[in-house]
Hints:
The protein is α/β, with parallel strands linked by helices. The protein is built from eight helices and ten strands. It has helices spanning 56-64, 85-91, 107-117, 122-135, 151-163, 181-194, 207-213, 238-248; strands at 16-27, 30-41, 45-49, 71-76, 79-80, 92-95, 169-173, 199-203, 216-221, 224-230.
Amino acid sequence: MNAQGKQSSGDGTAKPMIEARGLSKYYGPFVATQDVTFTVPAGQVAAFLGPNGAGKSTTMKLLTGFLAPNAGEARIGGFNVSQNRIEASRLIGYLPENGPLYNEMTPRGILRYLGQARGMSGALLKQRMEYVAEHCALDSVWGKPVGKLSRGFRQRVGMGQALLHDPEVLILDEPTSGLDPNQVHDVRELIIRLGKTKTILLSTHILQEVRAVCSRVILINEGRVVLDGSIDDMEGDQHDMEQRFRKLTNVG
């Protein structure tokens, strides 16, 4: 790693960590994504934007191997997700939108179980569980059944499982969904800290969040990438970003 903690490809540029190469997914005649192509280098925090139904969650599922593409390929850390699923999954922490949890288990029990499933044990597992409990603010509900937790706490348990194995790549689908303003602030601060050493692809509807934590914007509409650039490419202040978003997604 270089002095900033970012991996290098050896030629002075950051190593590609998330790669979508012509990703397409069809459900019969319905096109969920069409030729989605982008690369996120090591150490970058990229926002993945788009209106509801644009193909964001589908693309994230393709990148993490939860769905198989009809065409194209996804690579994580250089590993083809379809051909090298285990190697790629070791590098990924994935928070799906409304991800499933075991309602009868506690956050402590879920995280211990998931850690063991990833081959973690002993002092390492204990250390990582303590890290997650602290940074996802789960101490107060550590021993309560997940089924009795609020949506905000359930979301934090989901974030905890994504961080548990200390992955190099985080793919986060609406990580602040259901959180109150204080919790949203804490999650944003956590993402900023994580972005110093990890590669993050962050889906969100909140443009203020994009400006707060991201340096790059990838905008998808009707299954296709319509913008891929810096925050400045979304133009000026938050109001301008909203207007640009509406224009590129054919609204207003």
